[in-house]
Specification:
TIM Barrel, 510 residues, 5-stranded parallel β-sheet, elongated, Rossmann fold, 19 helices, 2 domains, 11% strand, alpha/beta, single chain, 4-stranded parallel β-sheet
Length: 510
């Protein structure tokens, strides 16, 4: 024990000091001078950060608990006072309003309700749109600088950070709020927020600004869904937790029903509205106070993975920002990113639970969607299902030939496939091993959709039996080709197959 103690007190510390001295020499910040725009477009790369506290740009905000927040997508004058009072009593101190969430009359009621709160200086109102309502006493924040130009069109994090950095080069020397969109990618969110703070601080330093930018974590709805909306609670929880750990100064918490309120043509005042807001504020309280994430000083400091990912995001975003300052356009790159994301979703390589896999067939929304303000790859499947909701929905019959246990995986695949449209799939509960009986049964079926389900070897026996089917839409579970039948298999463009089916029923019922 004595020798081990001596080692840690002596030799170990010496090795640590030697290691740090090498890092300081190799990784210290480069000396940057001159006017910021001229320098940023000159080809300079992102300045490397040292791993020593003496040299690195500080990421930690002032230690104070993060205020619980809630989000309003729609708030009319009739409910304004009651809704705001309920959130104030629930501990909310940050209020986020989406574009068009309220009009002048509703704002006057909101403002009066907030001004009645004591102390009023602990409240903050954020407007996420062009509205610029003012208050005589309540602090109102609008004009948040963000990379929404790239994010809303489906861009990835580097594009969003680059657009944000470009805008920050022209930001005045005053209190500035920068918005960064966070989603359900936990560790990526942490690194992204840290990268945004580093980029902002470096740009402000080079511009000679004395003000310190405030980091606002904004809800990204790119990965949210209108069906299976309770899953949005998990997405919001992940985003809020990541934002707290990353040290965001303000964290938006959105209710699971927010996306429905934002995109539905007609508003519904049902139990989801109040429950959604309650869950939004409770998420902030539980993570920020009970879990203590909102009071820890830079909880992610020292993580090699996060530091490495932060540095990579900084370098990539810095390089793209330079090209944007030179006049490069992002439109084509954004379009390519969108198309790739859509391709992955349509082929079910990128899964949205409840949308393009594992759907709840009993869920019905009965809504119509308006034009989206944010690109969401899951929306293509949602629109298909909403279109099918308006039609007389057929029953899908699965014709099983062979051993039932051996066919179970394919049977579940078929169920999952057509339930994406909200269709009911009829499982006979048993399989047929007698070819004559199978042929007779198949010829008597009156369902409009029939799926043959057997093993690859079993399909070789079913060519004549398959011809007896009178179904208008016939499919085969697998890649074996049978005349008059379409194939269903993993990795294919499931959206294309289902869209063709929806179009056929729409034409028939026109």
């Amino acid at each position: 024990m004595a020798s081990l103690t001596t080692y840690f007190d002596g030799a170990f510390n010496t090795q640590q000091e030697d290691w740090e001295s090498v890092l300081k020499a190799e990784l210290k910040l480069q000396d940057l001078s001159g006017k910021v725009t001229k320098k940023m477009i000159s080809g300079l790369t992102w300045p490397t950060l040292s791993l020593s506290r003496q040299f690195e740009t500080s990421l930690a905000p002032q230690i104070s608990w993060k205020k619980a927040s809630t989000t309003y997508a729609v708030l009319d004058a009739q409910e304004a006072a009651e809704a705001i009072r309920e959130d104030l009593n629930g501990g909310v101190r940050n209020f986020f309003f989406h574009a068009g969430a309220l009009d002048a009359k509703a704002w006057s009621i909101v403002d009066a309700t907030l001004r009645a709160h004591a102390p009023v200086d602990e409240l903050e109102v954020f407007f996420l749109g062009p509205e610029n309502f003012n208050s005589s006493t309540v602090r109102v924040i609008s004009g948040i600088i963000s990379g929404a130009e790239a994010h809303d069109l489906g861009g990835h994090s580097i594009q969003e950070l680059a657009v944000l950095a470009k805008l920050l080069t022209k930001a005045p020397d005053q209190e500035t709020f920068i918005g960064v969109f966070v989603d359900s990618h936990f560790f990526h969110n942490i690194a992204k927020l840290r990268a945004a703070r580093l980029l902002a601080q470096k740009i402000f330093q080079e511009n000679g600004h004395r003000s310190t930018p405030k980091l606002v974590a904004l809800t990204s709805y790119q990965g949210w869904t209108v069906y299976e909306r309770y899953s949005n609670m998990l997405r919001n929880e992940t985003a809020v937790a990541a934002a707290y750990i990353a040290g965001a100064d303000h964290v938006q918490s959105a209710g699971y029903n927010s996306l429905v309120e934002l995109e539905a043509r007609e508003r519904r005042s049902d139990e989801h509205v109040e429950r959604s807001r309650r869950m939004a504020r409770n998420t902030g309280h539980i993570l920020g106070l009970e879990s203590m994430l909102g009071v820890v000083d830079d909880a992610s400091s020292g993580s090699f993975h996060l530091e490495n990912l932060t540095r990579a995001l900084c370098e990539e975003a810095w390089g793209l920002m330079q090209r944007l300052l030179k006049g490069e356009e992002l439109a084509l790159d954004l379009a390519r990113v969108r198309e790739e994301r859509l391709r992955l979703v349509k082929h079910r390589r990128l899964i949205f639970s409840g949308i393009n896999d594992y759907p709840d067939v009993t869920e019905e929304l009965g809504i119509a969607l308006k034009a989206p303000s944010v690109f969401r790859p899951a929306r293509v499947f949602e629109e298909l299902r909403l279109r099918m909701e308006k039609l007389p929905r057929p029953v899908v019959y699965v014709a099983l030939f062979g051993d039932y246990g051996a066919l179970n995986a394919r049977l579940n695949f078929v169920k999952n496939y057509f339930e994406l449209l909200g269709l009911r799939v009829r499982d006979p509960g048993r399989s047929v091993t007698d070819l004559a009986a199978f042929t007779t049964d198949l010829g008597t079926r009156r369902e409009e959709l029939v799926v043959l389900c057997s093993t690859d070897e079993g399909y070789s026996l079913l060519t004549q039996a398959a011809a007896q089917s009178q179904a208008a839409h016939r499919y085969v579970a697998g890649k074996t080709e049978i005349p008059g039948h379409k194939n269903l298999f993993a990795g294919q463009n499931a959206y294309e197959v289902l869209e063709e089916l929806v179009l056929a029923f729409e034409r028939r019922n026109a």
